[in-house]
Fold each of these.
Amino acid sequence: MTRRLAVLGVLAVLAAACTDKLTTPGQCPAFCPGGDSLQTRDTIFTTIISRDSSYRGFVSPYEAAVLLAAEMPGVDSRPIWVSPGIPLTRRYGVDTVPKPVLGADSAKILIHIGRYEAGASNLRLKLYHMPQTIDSTTTFADVSSAFTDSLIDSLNVDSVLAMPNHHDTITGDSIAADTVNHALTIFWKLTAAQLPFVFADSGRQALGVQIAADSLASIAISTVGSANVGPGIIWYTRVDSAGVTRADTVRKLSPSLHGFVLNPGAAPLDSNLAIGGIPTARSLLRMKLPRFIRDSSFVVRATLLLVPSQAAQGVQSDSFVVFAQRVEADFGGKSPLAVARFLGDSAVSDTAGVLIGATDTVRFEILPLVRLWQADTTSPQAIMLVLRSHGDFGTTFEGGTLAEIRFYSSRNAALRPALRVTYIPRFKFGRQ
Amino acid sequence: MTPRRVIVLLAVLALGAATAGRAQDSQFGISGLGTPGRWESVRARSSGGALAFFDPLSPFADAALADLGQLTAAAQAAAAFLRPELATGTLSLRTTRFPAFTLGGPVGHGIVVGGGFSSYLNRSWDVITHDTLTLRGLPEAVTDERTSDGGVADVRLAAAMRVSPRLALGFGAHALTGSTREHAYRYYADSGLYRNTRQVGEVQYDGWGFSASALFDPLPGVRIAGLYRTDSRLRAKVGGNETARADLPTTLAVGVRWALRPKARLAASLTRQDWSVAGANAYNTVDWSVGAELGGEAFPLRIGARGGKLPFGPGGQAPTEFGLALGTGKSFAEGRGRLDFGLEHLSRSGVGLKESAWTLLMGLIVRP
């Protein structure tokens, strides 16, 4: 029995030792393996980006998710919209005969300001009648006269906010302040004299807003596509109900047409890479990774470097986000942008925040994109630069800001876009 | 012990072989071709290696096969516990190996054929180094890890014959073959900015060798032995392309065994290998061993000592080695099987490093 125990003991020790523990701290070069050694190299590739182009017209004012209003040096933007008409008859209960609308005593314009400058002082809104003919092609010049001679009313946002309950008991104007989302909803009361109900147009109204402030006159008015639609209109109508005049309220919260006019309009594209503005511009960068990088190196960091050709343009207090986004296929300006295919998919884009007036080099960390290009050599090595703003519910959308930035393109030999790659060359195993 | 128990033990040994993927005998071998294996059975190793010349189940001297009277298979397992003493402190490493398997038996006309495999070079290690690089103008701490798992085996086919009652000759052909799976990792302190990398490579090795040996009994109870072995070169290939080539040594060895009485044998040997042909940090070695085996087959006691030099090490000077060993064995199943046990302690010393190792050995011999 003792011998059996001894044998089993030896077997147990052997079995325990089967779990190897081999790690030793290297004391190089004496006790380190010979042959190749790991090297980290860092190279700026200045000529691998070429055939870069800009394209404009992705989001026009009439497509924008917000109506941008601004009046600052070099920037004048005024929202315009058309509120749809309302039915001229009403039915109540089991009425079989429609009751005619006699007219409107008053109306309220609802404007939800989703973004405004906290530092703006003495912010004022002016409401104008616009020609009924405005449409998606209307320019600033087309409505400049209306913005001169068709003033309906003006509202001092700061003054109303300073009043009890943000309510002006004299004019009837009021403001609901959303301190969580930093938003304001304006209920702008207008009399029948200010906003006549025109039967021939079924109450259809073409309106425009101009803003002014002592500083930082820039707001974004929510519209179709936002969580808070608008601008809206509430008509307080009178209805002839079997000889009895009856008050009735009719709401139209979404405009039938909306947009904004700019002065000056978007600057023409030039030899640089333009991003942003209205209508929005995108820029496409095409790369050609060197074969030794694509096939034989382990890229550990990849940074896209873009040098602004001029200071970022826009409302001074604006900051915006530039997306360097991978494209699924290279069709020039119509290249479809990559979308996240699974949760946490980082091989889609990187972002860089930019401040208005900034001229610093903008950097994008695009390692996941480069790794994808290494893994899938059929994937187009192209990046679309897109300017986006933050929207509701953490989303981002294009065309939400007047800001525009331009970077030097590959036409500028000294300041062209570059890719800085930190990589480890393939380790040469088997060397002594 | 019943045949059934023999089968169980064989299975245990086989399991050990399957799980013992890596071995690391000496830190000194990392910067060289590796750590040479010992061409010795558990019995021979328990005597300090002195009996290897005269043990037909040690893959050392082919001529010893001539004493193999019947078909015999032998396998062994070794568990090593190492304590390298580096400048950064003393470490504790452990590993298990399956260093040799031998099979042989007579084929008629006085010829005995044998073969098997043994460890020629062990190339299993795992080394971690730390450094700070300047990346994009800023210091970045990195940790590198290099691992190698595998080695080179000596696949032997040998034949021996007793040409006269006092002289036996043996010849062997050796195919050196093996592979290592190697990894190279680099970890960055700021892994959010820099991606950690892991590279994998499979290195194949090949070479060949030839050996000849003789056993001569000049006097009753006295046997002397001589060995000559030449190995060609070790070629490393990655993806079919040769990446390195190193010459391998010629081995010359002599030994003597004196049977004082039937149950008491003394032995000694001297082995020289010109490893310096292998490249930088490689040295010629001369190893000696003395040992004794006391008692009969049924329950012997073996003791031995060995010393010499290691073939690889830094500092322009070959590391030295000294070891003591002892062991025993037990026959069972009417002599058809035997278990050998051994315990070996080695002390190695070289420039910048001392290390010691305890190795527990177990061998199984089966004569069906």
Note: Residues 2-17 of chain A form the longest helix (16 residues).
Amino acid sequence: MFITEFTPWMSLGGGVLIGLAAVLLMAMNGRIAGMTGILSGILPPVSADWGWRAAFLIGAILAPALFVAAGGTVEFAVPPSTLALIVGGLIVGVGVYFGSGCTSGHGVCGMARLSPRSIAATLVFMVAAFVTVFVTRHMMGI
Amino acid sequence: MNKILSSLFIGLVFGLGISISGMANPAKVLNFFDVFGTWDPSLAFVMGGALITTAIGYRIVFGRQSKPIFENAFQVPNNKTIDARLLLGSAGFGVGWGIAGFCPGGAIPALGLGHSETLVFMGSMIVGILIARFLGTRRARLVAA
């Protein structure tokens, strides 16, 4: 049983920063801040514009390390087993490729533009995740 | 060069947002989906904060700028077709997210926390993307032929 504390203010603040990053990336580079898309461009066959993508990802990875180095704490616990991480990872990879995006691209950027594809995708993946957690935790008892 | 530096800075903002929001923590993400168990509604606040900020910010950007500062044009998808590929792919993503507790945007910054679980997930996810890309392009070639 992993109980996590309800953190409305930190979560809201974090959400505002995620939104700010999405707005800045559009204003400066004219791009959607979708992690599936940005990551896919540095995987083979690598996109010609891999430079800004790699820079963004490096910044995203450095941020929590710098935050922790500055004295901040980032809660982290992984209830799923290694097997579940591998299976889940493979399914996420295939899913975001065919679904053309994930929480950041569809759920934040696409929904903010009222893109019908993103609204449909977000509804589907949120419901699928709720159902999956219900099935694994309450029916299979994992 | 400006484009690279701005991306690095924006990546830092994104990664900080993910870190303090709780999206990099699979336990918290899974608890958001566990309404009938150890429910933690925090992630609704992440989505709400991100969505409202982006919706307002995009309106300002598209209203004031005819093009981005470091590029010649905005690159925004204009596809409006909701097809089986989109819906099945998204359903798959949701199932995987519910199993592992990581989504791409949560896992990438989580790499910076240095836990082996994040590497296992990211490695598998990248293999998944590459498999799908191989299958997707092969199917496209077959259809074209």
Note: The helical segments of chain A are 8-29, 35-40, 50-69, 82-98, 103-112, 116-139.
Amino acid sequence: MATAPERHLPRFNRTERAVHWVHATAFVILLGSGLCLYLPSLAELVSRRPLVKGIHIYTAVAWAIALVAIAVVGNRRSLVRTAREIDRFDADDRAWLLRRGAPQGRLNAGQKLNAVVTAAFALLFVVTGFFLWYGERDTRFRLPAALIVHDWLMYVSFVLFVGHLFLTLIYPKTRHSLSGMTRGWVDESWALQHHRKWVEEGQWPGSETSPPAASNG
Amino acid sequence: MRNDDPRPYGRRAFLGLVGGGLTSLLWARPAARVLAPVTSQFSQLAGNLFPVGGWRIYTISGSMPLFDERTWRLEIGGLVRKPVSLTFEQLRALPRAEQVSDFHCVTGWSVQNVRWAGVRFRDLLALAEPLPSARAIRFVSMEEPYVDSLTLDQVLLPNVMLAHELDGRLLSRPHGSPARVVIPEMYGYKGVKWLTRMELVDHESSGYWEGLGYDQNAWVGRSNGYSS
């Protein structure tokens, strides 16, 4: 039985995907090296703390530089548009969070919240990490709570990360979303199920070639 | 459904999280203390699943020293009448002391109720017979160049020992096998791990971390910028 070819809708542009993958790569390296600094059994297995510490710190620095580089050479307008999109929770978003199954835009309310938490945590990781690093060099800057907060951020991030991986790699209903973050597009039929408002409004803010979004006042 | 009332919850949540996170630098420690009964139960559970147990392992060199019972010796020398070289078996044969004490790291984490077993310094020093001019002990780790010193008064405080067991088992490699100094009243950096030599000296010299700006007398809550 022949079926009509599936239409692909552009969901995330290159700049957005670059931001995502810079975060993802840095997070995995930071989590892995951080756990080697944190768990005694891993510390013994790797047993090269100064090296692991160097990897941890330089990955954090590289992550920050990469984000600045994307902001410089990437599509800044789309980043601002995405930030605005993440900021705004309409009545459907609020209903969705209350599990009332309202239609969703390009990003559902959960994805928006995840982005907000990720951004806030990134900043807090940097601040607490800075005090951990600098406090070792100048004891006046050692904040004992920095380590506790850095740990708590890690616990919460770890749970979010596992949930994120489950939804994007395992759970059959949602895992097609990975295509949006790898190839940039998703199938229209899938988008209609999960992001109907986005499809119906016919605006493709994710696309670099798309016309600017129609004014909606 | 048409929505004309998008609300800026995103930025509010962001600012709330960042604000809460930054102020937590002030309230996280008291909160951690209040939550300790809950979190310690959780970490007990987690500790059974994952080897966390609250410990973090700090090393300063490229790899952790490996203990080889055939070649390892604990040398006690310097200002002593009788320099001593103990095998691990001889160390274990000395009068055994046990204690339960808290462990505090200068970076801010603690492990409560650690069960140590080992040897009191009184018994070790009795073997070597320090000269009257001896005032302090310089502890040398197999992990070079880690050294640190304690005065003789300090090592004779209650609950100070050279530990060779932790929680009922021989010290593991991450915890400084075969023997480490334990002085609960001071931060962990004073407790030299992977100990191989004790040198009696006439004055305390600064150790590895003291060379990086840490206090010579690392009293818990009363040093390194902490005040009780």
Note: Residues 9-49 of chain B form the longest helix (41 residues).
